[in-house]
Every structure is written in structure tokens, then in C-alpha cells.
Write a structure and sequence with these properties.
Number of helices: 8
Strand order of the largest sheet: 1-2
Helix content: 40-55%
Structural class: mainly alpha
Largest sheet: 2 strands, antiparallel
Order of helices and strands: HHEEHHEHEHHH
Number of strands: 4
Strand content: 5-15%
Distance between the termini: 33 Å
Amino acid sequence: MKAALPAFEGFGLPTAHAGTGIAAKRILDIVLAGLLVILASPVLALVSLAVVLDSRGPLVFTQMRTGRNGKTFAILKFRSMHVLEDGGDITQVSKGDARVTRVGRIIRKLSLDELPQLFNVLAGDMSLVGPRPHAVAHDIYYGAAISNYAIRQKVKPGITGWAQVNGARGATPTIDIMQARVELDAWYVANANLALDLKILARTPLEVVRPRNAQ
């Protein structure tokens, strides 16, 4: 029998202090995301050039993802594949996937394909820290297979999260692997606070340097 999750004390539940916490988290998102866009502008330009010169297709790939309280939004990523999948049938990227471009393999390994999501953060659809959003088709599939899957959607999805800094990145070929990731996300939702977000942000660069599971 699984241990019960702790009571929700973070940003996901409207407690007496939740409104203040959500507002502080939003301010942190806007300030840091705006600063990162400015600091990363040379990298954004170089990656943009590399993607355009490497293969045909749009510079930015968009795909519908599920956000807080089930609201869907179009996530932004640098295109890293020859195909642009969205809708009801989406195949996860696997190791050595032929659909990934040459530049795509590099930017995915370094998580540079995720940089456009800073604009999702500024728009308010995402946060810097939170459970990684999945394609809508995958949400439907895993939501039916994993009982506590929907807990992830009590907070805004993030560019990085507790699961990612604990090595849960990349493909999820089995339900057990996704279940383990969901448990980490559920723990974050139950314990979310600004101090934890700052800890996750501090650990994220180290995780990118040693990409354990990025495809």
C-alpha cells in the first residue's frame, strides 16, 4: 500500500497564505525569466541560426500541453525533429531516434530546446519551477492509468522541477517509470514554496551539465 501524500501546503491549495505565495512566485518568475531572456539572447540567436541552417521546417515547434487546472496552452520549443507531432497520436522520443535532427541532438542534450519556454513563463502559462507539462494525448493516457496523475495539474507546469533535478528526465517507456515521476511531482505540489523553488533552480544547471536521461 502506498503511503498517503502529505496535506497540500504549497501553491496548489487556497490556504490563508496561498495567495501571497502565488503572487511571490509570479513575481519571481517574471523577474528571473525576463533576466534570463536578456542574458541568454546570444544563445537564443545562435541556436536559432543553427536550427534554420540544419534542416527544413519552422524555427519554433509548438504543441498543446496541459497546464494548471487542466487549462491547455501552446508550449514553445526550438524545433529539434524532422516531424512536428501534435494531436491524438504522439510518439515519445527514444534514444537514437531518427526523427531528431543533427542540431536537435545537441540542443536536446543540453536542454537548449527548452529556452523558448521562458516566453511561456512570461505569458503566465508556465512557471520556472513545476511539474513538466506533457502532451495532451499523453495526459489522457497516463491520467487513466495512474490514479494520482492529475495532482500534477494543481500548480503551473514548469521548465524545470523536482522530478528533473532528481534524475527523472527523458522518455517514459513504461507506466512504472511515469508513476515514479508522478510521485516526485506530487511531492513537489504538496510541499511547494519559494525556498524549494530556489533550491530546484540552483540544482538545475548541475543537472543539465550531467544530462542523465535527456534524449
